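User: Before I run my own analysis I want an independent prediction to cross-check against. Here's the chain; please return only the structure tokens and, at the end, one sentence I can use as a sanity check.
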Amino acid sequence: MDVARNDIHNSQIPVVCRSCEARHGGICGALSSGQLVELNRHSVRREVAAGCEIVGQGESVCRYSSVLRGVVKLSKMMSDGRQQIVGLQFSPDFLGRPFLHESTLTAEAATDTEICSFPRSVLDRMIAETPELGHRLHCQALQELDDARDWMLTLGRKTAQEKVASFLHMIATHIDPDSADCATFDLPLSRADIGDFLGLTIETVSRQMTKLRKLGIITIENNRHVTVPDLDRLNNAAGND
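Assistant: Structure tokens:
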């Protein structure tokens, strides 16, 4: 937090960047003041309504983005038209794959989302010039690999209740990572999408949420607003270490 307060008084940093908390944990935190000024000249902040596509599978990638607010759903389309949700991204995640000219996934706003996008040519050059930036992107890629391996365990070995609890724990800890004891959030996915993500039917997802509610692990209002009174209990229900 001290870094954020110091930025407010740093006239070398663009005004729009000084108030952007996402940049302290994102790729922009690896850039110098001069690089932030340059990137800001090419950047566009925009809001994306829930359900709208940010980039489609197979599209040419000419811009990268940082997620400033909201949840982005990543999915993969098979040749026969079937679609699988393969991941979620939150602030301050980097959206895009350096050195790939074509998107291998579809990125869609799962909730009302705000992103900051910039030309890939500008950032590719900065990656070559700034080792720390390349290191941050490398670390994010490795973290996503670790998360994918953990999710393989979730899908392959966990019970239906553990799967739903794992999903809720992921949302709770990523939407508000600073919350140590409890969390409250609106579900970013429909029951159908949650089922798709977890390999469960809609009925099973609803049934397991009802069980978690009856156990007092979560509360649900209006079928979408979830409160987790104790994150440790939810973590235990997810079967996590």
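Sanity check: The chain has a mean pLDDT of 88.
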